[in-house]
Amino acid sequence: MAEVILDLAIESLVRGGQQVLRDIRWTVRRGEHWAIVGPNGAGKTSLLQILAGYLWPSRGSVVVLGARFGETDLRALRKAIGVVSSALDALQPVDLDAATVVASGFEASIGMPWNGVTSEQRAAADRALSAVGAAQLASRELGTLSQGERQRVLIARALVHEPALIVLDEPCAGLDPVARERLLADLAVLAAHRSAPAVVLVTHHLEEIPPFVGHALVLAEGRRIASGPTALALTSATMTEAFGVTCDVRPDGRGRRFLVVRLP
Ligand SMILES: Nc1ncnc2c1ncn2[C@@H]1O[C@H](COP(=O)(O)OP(=O)(O)OP(=O)(O)O)[C@@H](O)[C@H]1O
Ligand SMILES: [Mg+2]
Predict the structure, then answer these.
(1) What is the rounded CA–CA span in Å between residue 150 and residue 251?
(2) What 3-state class would DSSP assign to 27?
(3) Which residue minimizes the CA distance to atom 24 of ligand 1?
(4) Around ion ligand 2, which residues have CB less than 5 A away?
(5) DSSP structural state of residue 73
(6) What is the pLDDT of residues 62-96, one digit of tens each?
(7) 264 FRET partner, CA 20 to 30 A, in 125, 166, 212, 225?
(8) Continuous segment of H or E residues that includes residue 82
(9) pLDDT of 187-239, one tens digit each?
(10) If you take atom 6 of ligand 1, which residue's CA is the nearest one?
């Protein structure tokens, strides 16, 4: 498999007449896991939508898992990636059972896959649910799940087809503190596997960046403020620059960090 998971040189992304990303150069190599951090509107979700094959830059080049945009079938690429994004997941039908939602990850489809679910896919869905501690939810309708249960199901959906890249947009949103820790622990177990996918995680909360995520990209107003190993990218200086107010980044003593914001 390719040593380079992602290679992006986005000169510009324009959405609705507004430039939302500019001059983003970013490479993710095999074995690296990345966090993307930055204020509301910084362009984090837009960037994830590019690398998941749902948007492409107005100018620039994008190579994901060896496939170069413009020369590749983006539908095939979407199936090779696992995505958890509240924007996409809000479209899932509420009356679908959890196992079918998970199996829809094979086709990257929203709702029941066109060709239905094979017995192999159903078995894989059960395994993926077990891997995130949600085996007991298999036959529950999506609309009846709590936020934390739903999030586990959607993470199982992103993992079911054993993708080489998994993209998580604020995966801890709406989770209680214990559910959040469980989810982060599940991700750490996942990342420890030899065939683990590369993880790209968007979050607003530095304490949600688990120690196994060793790299970070900091965005603000569509620009790259910093990128590289977390110790270098997630500093008081880069957070202060990104958020435009004085920020202190502090270690939490468990290999993570938290942010103290000082409003003027
Ligand atoms: N479909 C669209 N049409 C026009 N503008 C858009 C569209 N989608 C996003 N934008 C704009 O692009 C900018 C970046 O949005 P994006 O959702 O990527 O930010 P974000 O960093 O994910 O923010 P948040 O932390 O609030 O989720 C915002 O100014 C947003 O208003
Ligand atoms: Mg977003």
Answers:
(1) 31
(2) strand
(3) 40
(4) 44-45
(5) -
(6) 999 999 999 999 888 988 999 998 877 888 899 99
(7) 225
(8) strand 81-85
(9) 898 888 878 899 999 999 999 999 999 999 999 999 999 999 999 999 999 99
(10) 15
